[in-house]
Design a protein that fits this description.
This protein is α+β, with helices and mostly antiparallel strands.
Length: 654
């Protein structure tokens, strides 16, 4: 066959494979294709990633030098580093975003594109190793649409997994052809993986390392050593580029504790867990509900992988098979977490490991190896079938694998931009806080606000990501008491100019909003149904103004109830309350006092201060409170009766 004819055939096969994988992406995510601009899984991670790629797409065009200064977690800088990088998908989404379309449309198109490209990359790798077009289609379908991918559908970075097979393809070319350009492509793949997902980058590096160990015999020659030197040079350059581009991640890296050791039997159950419709409703439900990951490759993949290992491997070199075994073993051992000491060693030696949350995700390495072996086994089968039946059987196998992998994905319409956000966008630029602001274990519920912020891109106190700033929970807790004078003072100190309140999501705020009557520090700007938009102004002249302006917020600790470290010891006939404390200063906000209302305090030192009316800021009473030690126990403070809200402020005096 002539070179032009061979290239034409390869081109047509690649186009055909691309069409097949796109069709499979549509099938596995149906009915997504019917409403790309408004259908959603209603998942917080999905909304986070939809916001992230939209932010990257618009910021790279508007102000690339401030790419990481995302509009979340205001006033913290470099806030994009609290999420997955997603820089490569963000660049891909730029043409879509420039059309001014819904961020859900940008995200959903990138989702389908990532799945298609992952399947295609796997196809190219397996065709390279087997020379068989249909085997590449099977392996690509198993990897791109397997249960590890479809159970993590909201995680866009997971669907853009094409860097993994492409890195191994480039590495194989480097070892066999020993060209400098192949070393360059290995570096590009590692860099691309790092700019897409931290997990993917770690997986790629470990897979390359496992391959290098498995094929080390090819390196102990003069030409082999030249490969090592080229690889080392490319690795050094790639590492420098990663450190430069992703330096905010290094600065904000949060070290997660080493996972506690579980049992071996519990750890390996992820390999039997599956969420596919066929498996879940027959035998896999128990495994799925007891594990935090699903990595069963499917019956079709397992059968063909075993067929590949039975006898000769369809002309595939032994070095490739050794590489697959090495990758699978490394991934399996690391997926067990601290069941073995290996993960602990890696945790201590390799800094990125300290940011990984789920060791079981390393199971994608043996899953990948099985997917490749399935393609190799399929090649063996096709060579045993007569020419007349080879295509029908190949089509049937792909169809069966597709049916086996169906997950029954659910999508619903999502109103991602309430009209009140459009009202905000029409006002003068300024930071915003959106209530309810979620913190603690519920901080993921801020994700819908991120998606809504794409209509205005205002800096906002709310945020969501892999982690959060150390002071976020305390700040969120204080401003959740809006429109109390204490929360408004905190908003003023932060520089927040607007507050959006979704009153239907926080019924308890209705009574507090009545406190705004007659106040000039909070102004209602717009209202749409249950949603309200307020402007934050300066406090008028009143006795409590200086007190609130002098709070050392960074040094204060937020408390709501008695505890070992809390200065609050108890209360009687008082509604909701919270306190801010440090050894020399205490500030307590209380609601709905009655005839016998009192507050018990355990102060480390004797303090003096005042009780203020929380709606007018006027002084109601002077107060002196002994320390817990000198009083021999908690000290009770009688509170003025009949007030909607009070503020007690105490300080150590000379």
């Amino acid at each position: 066959m002539s070179i032009p004819l061979r290239l034409g055939t390869t081109y047509r096969r690649h186009l055909f494979a691309t069409a097949v994988f796109f069709l499979l992406a549509v099938i596995h995510t149906y009915p997504l294709i019917t409403g790309l601009d408004h259908l959603s899984r209603h998942n917080d991670d999905e909304w986070l990633n939809a916001w992230a790629v939209s932010w990257i797409a618009q910021q790279l065009w508007a102000n690339p030098l401030s790419l990481f200064d995302a509009n979340i977690y205001y006033p913290h800088e470099q806030a994009l580093a609290y999420t997955e990088p997603l820089l490569v998908p963000g660049v891909m989404g730029m043409p879509i975003h420039w059309l001014g379309v819904s961020p859900l449309l940008t995200y959903n198109v990138l989702l389908l594109l990532g799945m298609t490209m992952t399947g295609l990359a796997m196809y190219v790798l397996v065709v390279r190793w087997t020379g068989d077009h249909w085997s590449g289609l099977l392996s690509g379908a198993v990897l791109a649409f397997g249960t590890p991918m479809l159970t993590r559908l909201p995680h866009l970075q997971t669907q853009h997994f094409y860097w993994f097979p492409l890195a191994l393809l480039a590495f194989d070319n480097l070892l066999t052809k020993q060209r400098t350009q192949d070393a360059f492509w290995v570096g590009i793949c590692v860099l691309g993986a790092a700019l897409t997902s931290g997990y993917t980058a770690v997986f790629v590096v470990f897979a390359l390392g496992a391959t290098l160990v498995a094929r080390n015999s090819e390196l102990w020659t003069k030409r082999g050593m030249s490969v090592v030197f080229r690889l080392a040079a490319v690795a050094a350059v790639t590492l420098v580029l990663i450190l430069l581009v992703l330096s905010p991640y290094r600065d904000l890296q949060v070290a997660r504790p080493l996972p506690s050791a579980g049992s071996f039997s519990a750890a390996v159950q992820i390999y039997l867990s599956s969420a596919t419709y066929v498996h879940f409703h027959t035998w896999a439900q128990g495994f799925y509900e007891q594990t935090s990951g699903s990595f069963f490759p499917g019956v079709v993949a397992v059968v063909f992988a075993l067929f590949a290992l039975w006898g000769a491997s369809a002309g595939v070199s032994r070095s490739v098979v050794r590489s697959l075994f090495s990758i699978g073993i490394v991934g399996f051992v690391l997926s067990l977490g601290t069941v073995t000491p290996v993960y602990g060693w890696a945790y201590d030696i390799i800094p990125p490991f300290q940011s990984l949350r789920a060791p079981n995700r390393f199971a994608i390495l043996p899953f990948f190896s099985i997917a490749v072996l399935a393609g190799i086994g399929f090649t063996r089968l096709r060579r045993c079938i007569s020419v007349a039946w080879v295509v029908p059987v190949s089509v049937a196998v792909i169809v069966v694998a597709t049916v086996e992998g169906l997950h029954g994905v659910q999508y619903r319409t999502f109103d991602w931009h309430p009209r009140i956000y459009q009202s905000l966008g029409a006002l003068e630029n300024g930071p915003v806080a959106i209530l309810p602001v979620y913190y603690g274990r519920q901080f993921n519920r801020n994700a819908r606000y991120l998606l809504g912020s794409t209509t205005h891109w205002r800096p906002m106190v709310n945020g969501f990501g892999n982690s959060r700033p150390p002071d976020f929970d305390q700040t969120a807790a204080v401003i959740s008491w809006f429109p109390s004078l204490v929360s408004v003072a905190r908003l003023q100190e932060l520089g927040v100019q607007y507050v959006i309140v979704h009153t239907d999501a926080m019924p308890q705020i209705q009574g507090r909003l009545a406190q705004i009557a007659g106040r000039s520090d909070v102004t209602l700007v717009a209202q749409d149904g249950a949603d309200r938009l307020y402007r934050i102004n300066d406090f008028p002249e009143m006795p409590i103004r200086g007190v609130l302006g002098d709070v050392q917020w960074a040094e204060m600790t937020y408390v709501e109830r008695p505890g070992r470290e809390s200065y609050l010891a108890g209360s009687e006939d008082v509604g909701s309350l919270f306190g801010l404390q440090r050894p020399e200063h205490v500030l307590v906000y209380l609601e709905n006092t009655m005839e016998r209302s009192s507050l018990d305090l355990r102060l480390p030192m004797t303090m003096r201060g005042r009780i203020y009316a929380a709606t007018t800021g006027q002084v109601l009473r002077e107060v002196a409170v002994e320390s817990f030690q000198s009083a021999g126990g908690p000290v009770s403070v009688d509170l003025p009766q009949g007030y909607e809200a009070l503020i007690l402020e105490l300080r150590v005096t000379d």
